[in-house]
């Protein structure tokens, strides 16, 4: 199907988008939601299972207190009301990713309701309403074999690993977000990024999209100005922040082209295609009645104690948005400079580097300079570049102490990234320390003066600027391992000139 | 007026993956109708101030601490499975359905 899509500017001039996001977050508890099986990522198939998460007859689930607490904290951080009484519900469906033939979830009584999250887009605050935050259990992993590898179509059978089945999963659903026009894709992305930061700041999940501990479904619809909201589609398989933005944008363009041609939007689930950036239709959604939700008889209701909720609320950390504002002030950064720190994903890294003893400027220089460059080249996250905040702080400390100049420090950093050890070890092992032995340095300076009598004469007669050539010569003989400033001072001193 | 139609029973059977014959549909529709009418009598005496009962025990907040408890070995886990491969449960292929949640 190769219909020509309309231009984005043209689409947002004629249509108004409404978006909504459903985000699933795997909690980082030690154990599963309803049993004591461990939750570590990876592991040999079916090594983290028990009668409860396998749904064996006679087993009974018991809710994990830490997961309830984490969900309430997420709800509080998102300004939600916490239910005083609520129940789990059975969502019945036949699919082997849940061995019980149902998933324990929450239906009409979510744990947290009616909140909001403020996100910043282009310097403006956009308030995203939160409909609900509820708790459920994750599903197992299905491997389709026969036919095309890993795909449902053409598969002859499926192999199932239940290690992931039963891991606590929090679902966060926004209210529909209208009135954001052309900014819709950016708002969607900013929301997911902010939500990720909030959850990370709570320490309840590692929220890594690439490992699937944060997953996002994006709802999009278009309507003509002044008319009712259009039919929405739900796009699944959106696995990065960039994809969130692309998915909304491409779905807006696709829907506009359907509407322009006089067609109607079908309410359906679509799948985001990472390679092309567009969406393709999936199955038609089963209706809620088909899931035959009913209160989970094996779990008694939850009634979070008011005092407990108040205690959790009082202990919430500073929200990331406010935390960033404070850091910006502490670091003395302009909005533009702070934005580059944010874009580089370096806030926490710089913060940790400063905490490890570096100056904000020193920390920022390494993370936004050399290390960002390496991360970009390798196409990886800055945090995965191979240097830790402690190492960067140590490196900057060596520079500040005059043991490394900038050039040598970059070489040491290369060693750090290559896993050769701490900056000090690398400096020593590779013999990279700045020559601070004045005797050796003076000898090199004298050698340079003797080799360049004409330049020396110029300097001696007052043309101090000519000293640069001699500094260069000394740096060459010391293989860059001298401090240029010290060398310059020494040259002037030997030639009896005031600096 | 029947409390449940033959079509509704067929729909429920399909959702529950139960193979029900045409004759059985008639039988079950009749039986379920009798059951539903009996239950409906309870509905007649309920007052607005009595919430529906979902749990027969007056308990809330039965929670456990987040502590790992040893589970089953893969061999034990797979011992009751009709079929297994690569330490995974082997099941018939799934058509036109997607993962929930």
Number of helices of chain A: 16
Q: Spatial order of the strands in the main sheet of chain B?
A: 2-3
CATH C-level class of one domain in chain B = Mainly Alpha
Helix content of chain A: 25-40%
**Structural classification of chain A:** alpha+beta
Just name the CATH architecture of one domain in chain B.
Orthogonal Bundle
Query: Considering DSSP H and I runs of 4 or more, what fraction of the residues of chain B is helical?
Result: 25-40%
Shape label of chain B:
flat
Low-confidence stretches of chain B: 96-101
What about the largest sheet of chain A? 9 strands, mixed
Strand content of chain A: 15-25%
Could you explain how this protein is built, in words?
The complex is a heterodimer of chains A (499) and B (101). Chain A is 38% helix and 18% strand. With 499 residues, chain A is an alpha+beta fold. Chain A has three domains: 8-308, no CATH class; 320-429, no CATH class; 438-494, Arc Repressor Mutant, subunit A, CATH 1.10.10. Chain A has a nine-stranded mixed β-sheet with strand order 3-6-7-10-1-11-12-13-14. Chain A has a three-stranded antiparallel β-sheet with strand order 5-4-15, with no helix packed on it. Chain A has a two-stranded antiparallel ribbon with strand order 8-9. In chain A, strand 13 and strand 14 form a beta hairpin. The mean pLDDT of chain A is 90. Chain B is flat, with a radius of gyration of 22 Å. A two-stranded antiparallel sheet of chain B has the order 2-3. Chain B contains three helices and three strands; from the N terminus they run ααβαββ. Chain B has helices at 6-15, 22-45, 74-78, and strands at 63-64, 84-85, 88-92. With 101 residues, chain B is mainly alpha-helical. The two termini of chain B are 38 Å apart. In chain B, strand 2 (84-85) and strand 3 (88-92) form a beta hairpin. Chain B has a domain at 6-45: Histone, subunit A (Orthogonal Bundle), CATH 1.10.20. In chain B, helix 1 (6-15) crosses helix 2 (22-45). At the A-B interface, strand 2, helix 2, strand 8 and strand 9 of A face strand 1, helix 3 and strand 3 of B.
